[in-house]
């Protein structure tokens, strides 16, 4: 059975940019744009009603910017996959968006095929952080949070297994095949893990694994930009 296309919500305040992105995405037979939002307020509403697989989020927009929209969307749906579309000059905004719950980012000057690959990776559960962003987030986690040691967190054996594989960069479908369950079951386990560890997304889960020495800092299979 053919897999359903990845449903994408495009969020950008420039109509030409939105239409261009939508056109490129719709050229891929494995993807479909289900909606376009021109600001953060629309993005939150459409994310709620459309439940897209991936939200391509601009950061600088009127009424509600991409950071606030990301916070609101993640508050309603912690499993939302938000891919930030940004420029090199917005590093601080990128950092804030990742803290707010975005799963990764891609720069606006990337080729269309790189954007499509990024959408696929985000939907599959691959965190997309640059080495510098990872180091900065790890430093903040160490300075501002004090998570309990792994053996004190009530994770099941299966959850510990999935945590390790996700932190290593494995796709949900790969994990599902390895342990003999459905991909939706893996996603449910990840949601449970995030809740128990008080984390908001998979990128933070990778940082947790590094901080607790479950994996080496250079082990996660991240996509760098």
Explained architecture:
With 225 residues, the chain is an alpha/beta fold. It folds into two domains: 6-124, Response regulator (Rossmann fold, 3-Layer(aba) Sandwich), CATH 3.40.50.2300; 136-211, Rossmann fold (3-Layer(aba) Sandwich), CATH 3.40.50.2300. It is 52% helix and 12% strand. It contains ten helices and five strands; from the N terminus they run E-H-E-H-E-H-E-H-E-H-H-H-H-H-H. It has helices spanning 15-27, 40-50, 66-76, 91-100, 112-124, 131-144, 157-167, 172-179, 183-197, 202-211; strands at residues 6-11, 31-37, 54-58, 82-86, 104-107. The longest helix is centred in the last third of the chain and has 15 residues, at 183-197.
The named CATH superfamily of the largest domain:
Response regulator
Gyration radius, rounded: 17 Å
CATH overall fold name of the largest domain:
Rossmann fold
Beta-strand content: 5-15%
Number of DSSP-assigned strands: 5
Mean pLDDT: 81
CATH architecture of the largest domain: 3-Layer(aba) Sandwich
Number of helices: 10
End-to-end separation:
33 Å
| Strand adjacency order, main sheet | 2-1-3-4-5
Tell me roughly what share of residues is in helical segments: 40-55%
CATH class category of the largest domain: Alpha Beta
Number of domains: 2
Spans with pLDDT under 50 lasting ≥5 residues? 144-151, 219-225
Categorize the overall geometry.
Answer: globular
Give a quick summary of the entry:
The chain has 225 residues and is of the alpha/beta class. The protein has helices at 15-27, 40-50, 66-76, 91-100, 112-124, 131-144, 157-167, 172-179, 183-197, 202-211; strands spanning 6-11, 31-37, 54-58, 82-86, 104-107. It folds into 2 domains: 6-124, Rossmann fold (3-Layer(aba) Sandwich), CATH 3.40.50; 136-211, 3-Layer(aba) Sandwich (Rossmann fold), CATH 3.40.50.2300.
């Amino acid at each position: 059975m053919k897999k359903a296309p990845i449903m994408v919500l495009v969020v950008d305040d420039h109509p030409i940019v939105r239409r261009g992105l939508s056109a490129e995405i719709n050229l891929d037979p494995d993807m479909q744009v289900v909606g376009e939002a021109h600001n953060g307020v629309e993005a939150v509403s459409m994310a709620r009603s459309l439940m897209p697989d991936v939200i391509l989020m601009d950061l600088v927009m009127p009424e509600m910017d991409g950071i606030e929209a990301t916070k609101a969307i993640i508050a309603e749906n912690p499993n939302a996959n938000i891919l930030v579309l940004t420029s090199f000059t917005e590093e601080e905004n990128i950092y804030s968006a990742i803290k707010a719950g975005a799963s990764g980012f891609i720069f606006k000057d990337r080729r269309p095929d790189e954007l499509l690959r990024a959408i696929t990776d985000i939907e599959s559960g691959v965190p997309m952080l640059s080495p510098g962003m990872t180091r900065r987030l790890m430093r903040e986690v160490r300075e501002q949070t004090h998570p309990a040691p792994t053996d004190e967190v009530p994770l099941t054996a299966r959850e510990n297994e999935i945590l390790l594989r996700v932190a290593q960069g494995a796709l949900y479908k790969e994990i599902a095949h390895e342990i003999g369950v459905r991909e939706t079951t893996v996603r449910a386990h990840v949601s449970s893990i995030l809740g128990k560890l008080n984390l908001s997304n998979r990128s933070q889960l990778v940082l947790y694994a590094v901080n607790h020495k479950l994996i080496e800092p250079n082990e996660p299979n991240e996509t760098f930009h």
